Amino acid sequence: MIIENHPFQVNQKGHLEIGGLDTTLLAEKYGTPLYVYDVSIIRENARAFTGTFKDLGVKGRVAYASKAFSSIAMLQVMKQEGLCLDVVSEGELFTALKSGFPEERIHMHGNNKSYHEIFMAIEHNIGCIVIDNFYEIELISAILEKQQKEIDVLMRVTPGIESKTHQYIMTGNEDSKFGFNLQNGQAEKAFNILHNHKSIRFKGLHCHIGSQIFETDRFELATDVLFKELSEWRKKYDYTPDVLNLGGGFGIRYTKEDEPIPYQNYVEALVQTVEEHVSEQGISMPEIWIEPGRSIVGNSGITLYTIGAMKEIPGIRTYISVDGGMTDNLRPALYGAKYEAVIANKAVDPVTEKVSVAGKCCESGDMLIWDLPVPNVENSDILAVFSTGAYGYSMANHYNRFPKAAVVFVENGSDKLVVQRESYQDMVKNDLSYE
Ligand SMILES: *Cc1c(COP(=O)(O)O)cnc(C)c1O
After folding, report:
1. Which of 76, 152, 226, 235 is deepest in the core (most CB within 10 A)?
2. What span, in angstroms and rounded, lies between the C-alpha atoms of 293 and 146?
3. 258 neighbors 300 (Cβ within 8 angstroms)
4. CA 233, CA 247: separation in Å to the nearest integer?
5. Which residues participate in the annotated binding site for pyridoxal 5'-phosphate?
6. Which of 41, 27, 35 has its CA nearest to residue 412?
7. Distance between CA 81 and CA 401 in Å, rounded?
8. What is the pLDDT of residue 163?
9. pLDDT exceeds 50 at position 166
10. Domain Orn/DAP/Arg decarboxylase 2 C-terminal, which positions (predicted)?
11. ∠ CA(390), CA(286), CA(102), 5° rounding?
12. Which helix H or strand E contains 333, and what residues bound it?
């Protein structure tokens, strides 16, 4: 049987499966809380993007935004699939280098890159730095001079597009901490510095308009804004870009309310919009780069928990508590994110009640799911929360000194531990005595 809305099945025992394996056996083998990824879904998601560029015969790059989930094993899968990689910090860059990721396929982002971060990026000859602000241009210039090097860069701009309850409006003054403003002339000023720079190779523009976006029209609007500016620069400076990076933010399904569209549609819409502008302006086709994060890993991962204490408040609600919470999945507490889940060992049992799933941290806000329909729940049942593959492990924290959970990859019917569960010794390893 197939689970509704999520790419998983139930076996003959009525247990939830992932990648052909019984989730209750995985929970028993590795303990809980446990992040489990079906690697075949990660690969399928990646290929939906890369395959569409190939099918359309358009030069493009798909850079996985590693902030969604960065670990050595994950980055190795991205390497195998031929993707590029976005990093936004020295830690993410370090992980990428440790994973053996090809340096020339790494791109660096960030609105406050430090001297040291940029130094490391240039030292390792990464493929591209996406410049965010004027201060960064100074830092990069100084480091290039010091290392006697050159580097490819893109310039991040804010196209001034916001969504307002399903209706999209263009805003005159953009209020964002990221990138150069197109409307007030900052972007053009930066362009002039970069375009004439002796050791910076200016390749083109970048924009990222947001996250969990389900329609293609916002990307088309952003592309329109970029081409409007580019048309000015072509007239004034005879400039045409080699690359347009249109960011990430493609939506996935967390709950039945989310209605994701096939990933191919985004790529096709972007390519078509760029092609229209290119032919209108009579310039050559730039490479199109995109940066999916959530859409590569989000739906491939689940989190397994063991249910412990239960508390029924008659006439109000029943709380069931699990052995994790905002330490392994911060999103509900951080921005009210919604999830769906099943009792993994009773995945086809008829629903009899609604319960609310609490984490075990000392915060009333540590609630994972409100009003989850479940069959008869008992202590020691295993709860499986869906779509936790992105921004779960990567936002995990040590609140209440809970060690970070382990990560297991399953593929072709076998399971492999790819991130060990933290020990209490790990937790105190940087603590120093004061007596
Ligand atoms: C976060 C981010 C992404 C990825 O966003 P998703 O919603 O995970 O696809 C891509 N590009 C930039 C610049 C980002 O900040």
Report:
1. 226
2. 34
3. no
4. 22
5. 249, 291-294, 391
6. 41
7. 36
8. 53
9. no
10. 34-389
11. 50
12. helix 331-335
Is residue 248 lining ligand 1, measured as CB closer than 6 Å?
A: yes
Q: Which atom of ligand 1 is nearest to the CA of 211?
A: 7
| Closest of 121, 126, 87 to residue 104, by C-alpha | 126
109 pocket-lining for ligand 1 (C-beta < 6 Å): yes
- 120 Cα distance to chain centroid: 23
| pLDDT for residue 169 is more than 60 | no
| Mean pLDDT computed over 170-192 | 82
Buried b (16+ CB within 10 A) or exposed e, 129-138: bbbbbeebbe
Nearest residue CA, atom 13 of ligand 1?
Answer: 208
Looking at the CA of residue 206, tell me the nearest atom of ligand 1.
Answer: 13
Is residue 288 a contact partner of residue 49, using CB atoms and an 8 Å limit?
no
- Answer whether 291 contacts ligand 1 (Cβ < 6 A): yes
**Domains of the chain by range and CATH?**
9-38+298-428 (2.40.37.10), 109-292 (3.20.20.10)
Q: Taking the CA atoms of the chain, what radius of gyration do you get in angstroms?
A: 23
Instruction: Check if 294 has its Cβ closer than 6 Å to any atom of ligand 1.
Output: yes
| Cα angle for residues 178, 182, 184 (degrees, 5° grid) | 105
Numbered residues of the known binding site = 249, 291-294, 331, 335, 363, 391
Question: Rounded to whole angstroms, how far apart are CA atoms 244 and 159?
Answer: 13
Phi, psi of 104 (to 5 degrees): -70, -10
Tokens 């985004």 — which residue? 266
Question: Residue type at 242?
Answer: D
Closest CA to 326 of 335, 315, 317, 318: 335
pTM higher than the cut 0.85: yes
Residues for the chain: how many in total?
435
